[in-house]
Request: fold
Amino acid sequence: MRREHPAILNNELTLAFWIMPAGHGTLVRHGYAHYGFFAGMAGNGGVDAGGGGEWHVASTNDNLVDSKWHNVAITIGGEPFREIRLYVDGVMKGSGKSKAPCLTQSLEFFDGYNGILSEIRLYNRVLDADEISALATPDKAETAQ
Reply:
């Protein structure tokens, strides 16, 4: 599914969702080759996030293919739209900067993803660590607006 979204034009975003993965596949991508962003389930059951032509800017080796729900949040921000942070279950697991901006105007979700997902949220700003932790705690998820 491809969606145009004005949040991407603000040079900051947070994408958060719940997943119960059954294997590897693309979770989200936008852009192309050297200007864009992607996140996907790796073959080891972890999550990889990258952008600006770099595939592994932020990664986790935690095996999420365990028949449990997990909250994943990815933030992109900084000048010029290069800092990528990856959170799993409210804890930052990786961060880094891409060499080129992660710019485009649309997102393509869950192309080839193998598993169940729920509660997809897109914010037009970078949520802070406390807000992301709240998203991973179901009874506190409404605090991040």
